[in-house]
């Protein structure tokens, strides 16, 4: 459909979560795969620079996730290693990719046909017990952070610790102060529900859920209740739709149509101004049919158009909503 192609071409497209940098790094333990460059086209994984360009992505969030084997004592070292590898990969791109500092960089990337890479933490373990360390990571380019992965750490409880009803620790509350002062996006994906409501009560800036879906549509622990969605909207935040099959449907192999059911429900509950993309590419075992890798994103645009979303609203979902919150929080 020519109209869908034109909308996709015109749009600023922002994907708020991928685990691709882990694929470029040596890993130990059960993973143990051979690293691949994210600059060169590959038949492995979901994302590399050529496929990002084919998919029309303007800004890709690259998650810095520390595997359990490095936690807690080597978490900072591992995070620095992953950031170093990302910078080295960007240097190999001959200017086609660069690290995001401010929202203006994303706008410039769109004008020049380049890809802006935004560094995010998936779990706050690298700051250990000292939120002041965030200041140095910010200087290295950190612009988004979730406090936990699924388990408990020194900042808060993840969704895997729901039984305890635990939220943020005292150190976690102090970390919120640094996050706000530095202008880093606060991400509530992976956080326990008690931790989520701690943030709603103790944080007065817009927040994101970088890669989460609707629990009403699919009852997975990583998805968000309607009450949580409404609370994020009330803070003028954004939720990135996750492409992980088990977050989309409870059984079977999902399609793009199934993914759009989540978007439809979020639109009904929180409004289109609060929906974005958070693919979780390279961090998920499989993908919905039709979204096999990032180069297939135009199919999602076409499907949104077929489902009656306007050009204006499609552009919001593809990236303008995340650009708004990046501009407000990061600058």
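^ structure tokens above, recovered residues below v
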């Amino acid at each position: 459909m020519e109209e869908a192609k034109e909308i996709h071409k015109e749009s600023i497209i922002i994907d708020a979560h991928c685990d691709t940098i882990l694929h470029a790094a040596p890993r130990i333990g059960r993973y143990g795969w051979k690293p691949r460059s994210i600059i060169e086209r590959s038949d492995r994984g979901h994302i590399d620079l050529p496929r990002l360009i084919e998919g029309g992505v303007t800004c890709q969030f690259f998650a810095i996730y520390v595997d359990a084997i490095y936690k807690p004592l080597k978490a900072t070292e591992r995070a620095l290693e992953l950031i170093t590898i990302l910078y080295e990969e960007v240097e190999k791109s001959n200017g086609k990719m660069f690290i995001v500092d401010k929202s203006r960089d994303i706008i410039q990337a769109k004008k020049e046909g380049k890809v802006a890479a935004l560094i995010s933490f998936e779990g706050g373990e690298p700051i250990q017990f000292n939120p002041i360390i965030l200041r140095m990571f910010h200087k290295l380019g950190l612009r988004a952070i979730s406090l936990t992965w699924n388990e408990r750490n020194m900042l808060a409880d993840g969704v895997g610790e729901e039984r305890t009803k635990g939220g943020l620790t005292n150190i976690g509350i102090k970390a919120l102060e640094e996050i706000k002062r530095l202008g880093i996006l606060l991400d509530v994906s992976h956080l326990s529900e008690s931790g989520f409501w701690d943030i709603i009560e103790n944080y007065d800036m817009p927040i994101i859920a970088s890669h989460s879906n609707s629990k009403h549509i699919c009852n997975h622990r990583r998805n968000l209740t309607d009450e949580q969605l409404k609370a994020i909207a009330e803070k003028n935040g954004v939720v990135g739709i996750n492409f992980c099959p088990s977050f989309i449907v409870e059984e079977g192999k999902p399609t793009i149509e199934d993914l759009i059911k989540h978007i439809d429900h979020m639109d009904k509950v929180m409004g289109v101004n609060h929906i974005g993309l958070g693919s979780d590419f390279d961090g998920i075992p499989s993908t919905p049919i039709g979204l096999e890798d990032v180069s297939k994103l135009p199919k999602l645009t076409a499907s949104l158009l077929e489902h009656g979303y306007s050009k204006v609203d499609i552009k919001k979902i593809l990236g303008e909503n995340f650009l708004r919150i990046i501009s407000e929080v990061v600058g």
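The beta strands are 14-15, 59-64, 97-99, 115-122, 142-146, 185-187, 208-209, 238-241, 275-277.
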